[in-house]
Amino acid sequence: MEKKDDNYYIEKVKNGQANYFSYIVDKYQDIVFSIALKVLRNREDAEEMAQESFVKAFRSLHSFKGKSKFSTWLYRITYNTCISETRKKKHHFIFTDDVQIRDEAEELNLDGIPEENREKYVKAALEKLPEDEYTLVLLYYFEDQSVDEISRITGLTASNVKVKLHRVRKKLYTILDDMLKEELYAIL
């Protein structure tokens, strides 16, 4: 079966064929869960808020006008749902084993890290980032969202997103460099 773009499925759902929404859930469930997990820092809450985000998206699908990518719209719903939840609860747990790191991590220019260890180091470095910085990295590097799309998702200005991404890159390089030095000293 030929895969269609998001708009095809959105139109089907808007026209009363709700079963087509399952395609959207299948396509975006991992990233929606990853955003929720990082913001909420609790697996059970993240699962609940990811589900809640999809429910909100489904109920509000008629208001999606297509002025931005559907993923941007969905991530904004997820981010706002999770931020609202953090205002209700204050949990500080994270299970980084559940964060999915894909091959696109190489875009961070990790040439100094042996290929077989990159995922391990990137996960460990990401774990050390605050939730807002992690979300920016996740959206930009792993979900290929543009600065403007991230701006719409997070509510930050585009210039603020650029500055924060620059600072986070520098911070990640420092974290990774420190981790590599620690491992080198442990070997020696």
TrEMBL record:
One of its GO terms (molecular function) is DNA binding. Signal peptide: none annotated. Coiled coil: none annotated. It comes from the Bacteria. This is RNA polymerase sigma factor. Residues 25-90 form the RNA polymerase sigma-70 region domain. Residues 122-172 form the RNA polymerase sigma factor 70 region 4 type domain. Keywords: Sigma factor, Transcription, Transcription regulation. NCBIfam families: sigma70-ECF. SUPFAM superfamilies: Sigma2 domain of RNA polymerase sigma factors, Sigma3 and sigma4 domains of RNA polymerase sigma factors. It holds the Pfam family Sigma70_r4_2. One of its GO terms (biological process) is DNA-templated transcription initiation. Belongs to the sigma-70 factor family. ECF subfamily.
